Amino acid sequence: MIRHNNHRRTRCTTFGRAAKVIVLATLLTSCSASLTDPERNASVHPTYQAVVSDKNIGQELDFSQNNQLSKMSERSIANFLKQIQIRYGDKLYLVDYSASGTAQRWASLSRFLKRYGLSLMQSPYPLKNIGVPGTSKLMVVRSDVAAQECVYPSDSIKAQFNGYTFSSFGCAVRSNMAHQVADPSDLVSGKHYSGPDGGVISRAIQKTMSDNRQ
User: Fold this and answer.
1) Residues 193 and 110 reside in one and the same domain
2) How many domains does the chain have?
């Protein structure tokens, strides 16, 4: 059984120091704005921001008495992953409401997910979720991003000398970034790069070849 629980959070994207330098370099050429512009943004941070939201999708699990994933749950999880079209950036958590045996159940679920090239998060599920004692769920947290439409006011060509940016300043950069990023959650907090991972590269190539055959 699949349960959808939408949990929306509005989070602003941030750019690195290099991007800020570029913004500063272009500040002098973009400081024309309408005197009637209600935003009147005098900073180098664009008014336009991408909105990242999280969707939480759950699948109930069944474990045996020795805390091993049951065959019925294995089939259910396989169908669940296919139905939601698991994708890059999805984060998988074990949400366990049992008093003991959580470590064994986590290990059993993790071994099964590795068959699909997936990793189970070791950190706790980020949301407080009250469940029935003795039950367990596989929770998938999926991030999506919505980019605002860039609007260029016709009166923005009127010059002023108060140091305000265009009301549409930075919109194209933010919008392009939002449409191109593979994992929208990276717009909020980027991943630490610890070097190339042969397993990840291999899975990416296999998925590309599989998609091309379809």
Assistant:
1) yes
2) 2
